[in-house]
């Protein structure tokens, strides 16, 4: 585990610990019969709606990946939909190592380099962070629940800092995409006094990676990617809203509140475990501490989120992986995350 991952995990654990301690008195009065009553009367149609929004998001992700690859190869979005679902199924099952299943599978199916697909994945993450950051920030600034967060003023400042970091990161990536060769030469010049061999290797990697990142060719593609990215995360927020509305007591919750809950889920995903356990914990803690939902109802909602959102791609993804004649383990081994037995 890298030092960045350790710091992120510790930060998430600290925030969740504050929220859980804040609602400790609620947990002492947990009513199991009430919990089962909440689970018994879940709306099946709202639950199906949540799953439908998630799969609509997968379709838009396939369309967005097609736009990323337009300058490399014209691929119908329908051919990218299967690998997208398989990839998110792997992410749900094994955690972060599953991130590489989709680019590796697309590279193999379409006879493209793995590095070009990893570059597309990096660009996708940049657009994801930017779009969801803007949406959640807007929800945070207009939601009355923000005042119940552990550190409301500091959190708002943190949101602005996050937006600044995302903007700087985006500018760096775009600079690398457009000037990869020049950046490689600069790094080679800076590292040359230390070791010429490493400097030459770093320059070559930077140049190649910069070339792979240069997937956004024109303003039309950029606009399409921005629209698709915002649409994807709005669909995910609508899936959260449908999951909340599956419980009669939560049907007054708004889209802004669903976006805020999505933000807590993403916070939990920074310390992602296989199966999304930390996301559920973050959602349950937020429902109790921020939205003042009964613990029994919050736990029921957390379980339903796990079923309708986190694990939604797993059944179809496993079937598609089986039809491909592939399993998750060989794909992970190909991507370098596991060693052969």
What does this protein structure show overall?
This protein is mainly alpha-helical and 341 residues long. Helix 4 packs antiparallel against helix 11, helix 7 packs antiparallel against helix 8 and helix 9 packs antiparallel against helix 10 (196-213). It contains 16 helices and no strands. The chain has helices at 3-22, 24-28, 32-40, 44-69, 77-94, 101-110, 114-142, 152-178, 180-191, 196-213, 219-245, 255-269, 277-289, 295-310, 314-323, 328-334. The protein has a domain at 45-140 and 219-334. It is globular and about 65 Å long. Helix content is 77%, strand content 0%.
Task: Give a brief outline of the structure.
The protein has helices at 3-22, 24-28, 32-40, 44-69, 77-94, 101-110, 114-142, 152-178, 180-191, 196-213, 219-245, 255-269, 277-289, 295-310, 314-323, 328-334. It is mainly alpha-helical.
How far the N terminus sits from the C terminus, by CA atoms, comes to 21 Å
Low-confidence stretches: 150-154, 334-341
Number of helices, counting only DSSP H or I runs of 4 residues or more: 16
User: Helical amount among residues, as a percent range?
Assistant: over 70%
What is the chain-wise order of helices and strands?
HHHHHHHHHHHHHHHH
Report the structural category. mainly alpha
Mean pLDDT: 75
Radius of gyration: 21 Å
How many extended strands? 0
Shape: globular
Report the β-strand fraction as a percent range: under 5%
The largest pleated sheet is described as:
none
């Amino acid at each position: 585990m890298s030092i960045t991952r350790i710091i992120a995990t510790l930060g998430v654990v600290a925030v969740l610990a504050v929220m859980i301690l804040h609602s400790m008195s609620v947990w002492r009065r947990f009513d199991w019969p009430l919990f089962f009553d909440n689970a018994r009367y879940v709306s099946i149609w709202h639950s199906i709606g949540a799953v439908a929004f998630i799969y609509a998001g997968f379709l838009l992700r396939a369309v967005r990946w097609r736009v990323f690859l337009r300058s490399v190869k014209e691929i119908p979005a329908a051919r990218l939909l299967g690998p997208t679902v398989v990839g998110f199924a792997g992410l749900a099952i094994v955690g972060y190592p599953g991130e590489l299943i989709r680019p590796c599978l697309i590279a193999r199916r379409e006879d493209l380099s793995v590095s070009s697909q990893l570059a597309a994945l990096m660009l996708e993450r940049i657009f994801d962070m930017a779009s969801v950051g803007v949406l959640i920030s807007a929800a945070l600034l207009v939601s009355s629940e923000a005042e119940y967060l552990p550190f409301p003023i500091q959190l708002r400042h943190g949101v602005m800092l996050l937006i600044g970091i995302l903007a700087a990161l985006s500018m760096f990536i775009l600079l690398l995409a457009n000037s990869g060769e020049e950046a490689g030469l600069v790094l080679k010049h800076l590292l040359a006094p230390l070791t010429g061999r490493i400097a030459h290797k770093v320059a070559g990697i930077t140049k190649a990676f910069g070339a792979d990142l240069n997937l956004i060719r024109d303003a039309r593609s950029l606009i399409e990617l921005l629209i698709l990215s915002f649409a994807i995360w709005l669909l995910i927020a609508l899936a959260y809203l449908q999951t909340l509305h599956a419980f009669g007591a939560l049907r007054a919750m708004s889209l802004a509140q669903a976006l805020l809950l999505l933000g807590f889920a993403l916070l939990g995903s920074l310390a992602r475990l296989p199966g999304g356990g930390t996301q559920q914990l973050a959602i349950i803690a937020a429902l109790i501490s921020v939205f003042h939902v009964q613990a029994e109802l919050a736990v029921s909602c957390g379980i339903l989120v796990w079923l309708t959102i986190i694990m939604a791609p797993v059944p179809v993804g496993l079937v598609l992986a089986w039809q491909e004649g592939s399993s998750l383990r060989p794909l992970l081994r190909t991507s370098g995350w596991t060693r052969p037995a």
